[in-house]
């Protein structure tokens, strides 16, 4: 009974706030279906780590460390980058680079949509140390695993806030992107049709593509080899044609299992005393800035190209250059159908979307090369 009273006395308002934050994330996951595989574990985890003297995280009792399960998982799977990298194998196995290989010019939009990362780096450097600023800027990659790896390698003090911001904004892409796209485009531009002309992509091309991208990226940004290598290894499993069972496992069982562990383990860094501070609010704000400018960069680059092209590009596809695969590509396709029910942009937007996946990893590698 004394223990019960002691725990109740240790409860404070900061913990209650974190319970509320966890409840909001769970609500968004269930009611709004926003990335439920991530937001639900993060939300529930943020509640259990903010219970007084929670056994889910390591506690010091009478000078002796009592290890909590989430702290052990964090040390075993996130602090050494294992979970994010294994997840990349599953993501790579899900990606079909066919639309991109059909029209390789789409890769430039993936590069253009990383503008927000470097813009945010400049802004964040005014408030944080350069390594922390670089870690915060990579939130704009819209790629949770890349954000985690970069923040860990650069030794950021704000790992918890960065992880939560990265995954939360990925879930909020359907809310964040459409208003920005509409603000920067006219109805006439959004109605531009881009007929898809399917071309057969040879099997040898699909096999060589992940290998060549890994080699080129490794030469340009050596620090990104583990990121791009695991992503492209997953894709090679998919495309080689002799490992179908492994490909299915990577796409479903492996990816789902790691996502569960990753989500609930991220919450171990959401303890109230570390999370509820002005720096966290600033990081969330800067993460939003990165997402906005990434989207704007892709759209404006497409509009710039249209000044010189006879065959116009629907500028909305530029917004799909962020790494939130496949959500961003689907959003652009849906917006095209809203303006014109016969305007099918899915293959173009997905092609840009997968190029953004590659570009975000390269951007993360460049950030590491500059600041490690």
What do you see in this structure?
The chain is mainly alpha-helical and 372 residues long. The chain contains 20 helices and 2 strands. The protein has helices at 2-10, 13-30, 36-48, 69-78, 82-94, 98-102, 107-112, 115-124, 130-137, 144-153, 159-171, 173-184, 187-190, 203-220, 225-239, 244-266, 272-275, 278-306, 327-339, 346-371; strands at 59-61, 64-66. A two-stranded antiparallel sheet has the order 1-2. Helix 5 (82-94) packs antiparallel against helix 10, helix 12 (173-184) crosses helix 19 and helix 14 (203-220) packs antiparallel against helix 15. The N and C termini lie far apart (51 Å).
Give a nutshell description of this structure.
This protein has 372 residues and is mostly helical. It has helices at 2-10, 13-30, 36-48, 69-78, 82-94, 98-102, 107-112, 115-124, 130-137, 144-153, 159-171, 173-184, 187-190, 203-220, 225-239, 244-266, 272-275, 278-306, 327-339, 346-371; strands at 59-61, 64-66.
């Amino acid at each position: 009974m004394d223990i019960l009273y002691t725990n109740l006395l240790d409860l404070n308002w900061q913990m209650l706030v974190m319970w509320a934050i966890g409840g909001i994330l769970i609500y968004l996951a269930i009611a709004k279906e926003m990335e439920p595989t991530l937001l639900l574990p993060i939300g529930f985890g943020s509640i259990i780590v903010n219970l007084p003297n929670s056994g889910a995280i390591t506690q010091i009792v009478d000078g002796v460390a009592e290890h909590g399960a989430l702290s052990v998982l964090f040390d075993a799977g996130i602090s050494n980058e294992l979970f994010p990298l294994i997840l990349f194998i599953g993501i790579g196995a899900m990606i079909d680079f066919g639309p991109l290989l059909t029209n390789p010019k789409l890769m430039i939009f993936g590069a253009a949509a990383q503008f927000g990362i470097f813009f945010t780096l400049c802004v964040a450097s005014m408030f944080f140390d350069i390594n922390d600023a670089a870690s915060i800027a990579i939130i704009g990659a819209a790629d949770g695993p890349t954000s985690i790896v970069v923040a860990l390698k650069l030794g950021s003090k704000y790992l918890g806030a960065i992880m939560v911001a990265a995954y939360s904004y990925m879930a909020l892409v359907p809310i964040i992107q459409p208003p920005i796209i509409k603000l920067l485009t006219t109805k006439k531009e959004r109605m531009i049709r881009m007929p898809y002309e399917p071309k057969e992509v040879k099997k040898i091309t699909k096999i060589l593509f992940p290998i060549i991208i890994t080699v080129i990226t490794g030469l340009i940004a050596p620090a990104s080899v583990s990121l791009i290598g695991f992503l492209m290894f997953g894709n090679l499993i998919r495309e080689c044609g002799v490992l179908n069972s492994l490909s299915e496992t990577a796409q479903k069982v492996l990816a789902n299992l790691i996502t569960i562990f990753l989500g609930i383990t991220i919450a171990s860094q959401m303890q109230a005393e570390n999370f509820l501070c002005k720096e966290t609010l600033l990081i969330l704000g800067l993460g939003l800035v990165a997402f906005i400018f990434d989207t704007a960069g892709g759209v404006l680059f497409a509009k710039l190209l249209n000044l010189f092209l006879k065959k116009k590009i629907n500028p909305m596809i530029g917004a799909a250059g962020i790494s939130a695969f496949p959500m961003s590509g689907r959003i652009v396709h849906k917006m095209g159908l809203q303006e014109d029910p016969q305007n099918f942009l899915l293959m173009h937007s997905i092609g840009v979307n997968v190029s953004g996946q590659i570009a975000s990893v390269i951007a993360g590698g460049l950030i590491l090369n500059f600041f490690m």
